[in-house]
């Protein structure tokens, strides 16, 4: 019986494990397919405090992981494929977690499975991630000082990040597949009134091309079918994010977009199950905010386990029904 299983190994998960480890809870972290989550594919991190010269995503993951291990966290490199939190409504019975290779029972769980940016799924996108293709203007905008960039998308994120990019870039072209923005009027008007921003309407990106780094996007007008090539140094893709919450459907309460619903104490709708990081945060999505939320969740788990000691001792539950 585990004291606490952390599902996910991004900044929220690693911080939750650090705090749980320091509380002598010997947390088990089930990492998911990519240890470190989204930051492991982020080349440069310059907005995380404590690194005046900046760092790289993989380096930050290694440092966080090492610090977490130092305090007793254990790592299972696997993906969770099923959970049974049905006992959560009942005091003293374990929560069930099943991975491809193993099954675990736990007194508490912290869900930190994060979110993933929706991909365009066009040729060149994967190839140029970190070399001109980005899903995070806050992280990467600085590297495009004086350059020309395009933003793909017509929602609030595309407007907000496009406006942010004008602090650095010489020009920002927003490519949108319709002739009307999805973004609300406030951000839409701010973008339209920004002299560095121009719009390419009714247009989709068909491919991202370059030699070692992004040099251009191949585009197509969806109304006329005309194709063109736009030279650009960067492609910022903002066509939405999706929370990695599929395995919790029907198990934990979530909003219409699939983000888990938590209270101020980071509790989900199932007793003993907490959540932190982007899985319950559609707004901030920063390493710094995820770290803070992971810390909160682990501290609340400590309190929960302390309170649970006064209830019935956990009873074994058969996982044979899975
Ligand atoms: P969103 O509102 O879902 O907008 C996604 C945009 O990407 C839409 O314009 C959509 O086009 C376009 N898109 C989707 N799939 C595409 C594809 N395959 N190819 C090309 N374009 C595609 O997502 P979001 O902008 O990330 O916003 C998410 C939520 O957060 C929204 O509720 C938003 O209001 C909120 N938000 C608020 C703020 C703020 O208020 N400061 C800032 C950021 C986000 P269509 O319009 O044609 O569907």
Describe this structure in words.
Helix content is 22%, strand content 25%. It has 6 helices and 17 strands. It has 2 domains: 5-116 and 241-309, FAD/NAD(P)-binding domain (3-Layer(bba) Sandwich), CATH 3.50.50; 119-237, FAD/NAD(P)-binding domain. It is α/β, with parallel strands linked by helices and 322 residues long. Helix 1 packs parallel to helix 2 (57-70), helix 1 runs parallel beside helix 6 and helix 4 (156-165) packs parallel to helix 5. The strands form 4 sheets. Strands 1, 2, 3, 4, 5, 6 and 17 form a 7-stranded mixed beta sheet that branches. It is elongated, with a radius of gyration of 22 Å. Residues 120, 152-158, 160, 177-178, 182, 204, 238-241, 282 line the site of NADP nicotinamide-adenine-dinucleotide phosphate.
Tell me briefly what this model is.
The protein is an alpha/beta fold and 322 residues long. Helix content is 22%, strand content 25%.
Oligomer: single chain
The amount of beta strand, in percent, is 25-35%
Quickly give the structural class. Answer: alpha/beta
Present as ligands are: NADP nicotinamide-adenine-dinucleotide phosphate
The helix count comes to 6
Structural descriptors:
322 residues, FAD/NAD(P)-binding domain, alpha/beta, elongated, 6 helices, 2 domains, disordered C terminus, binds NADP nicotinamide-adenine-dinucleotide phosphate, seven-stranded mixed beta sheet
List the helices and strands and how they pair.
Layout: E1 2-7, H1 11-22, E2 28-30, H2 57-70, E3 74-76, E4 80-84, E5 95-99, E6 103-111, E7 115-117, E8 133-134, H3 137-140, E9 148-152, H4 156-165, E10 171-175, H5 185-192, E11 197-200, E12 203-210, E13 214-221, E14 227-231, E15 234-237, E16 241-243, E17 273-275, H6 287-308
Parallel strand pairs: 1-2, 1-6, 2-3, 6-17, 8-15, 9-10, 9-15, 10-11
Antiparallel strand pairs: 4-5, 5-6, 7-16, 12-13, 13-14
Helix pairs in contact: 1-2, 1-6, 4-5
This protein binds NADP nicotinamide-adenine-dinucleotide phosphate.
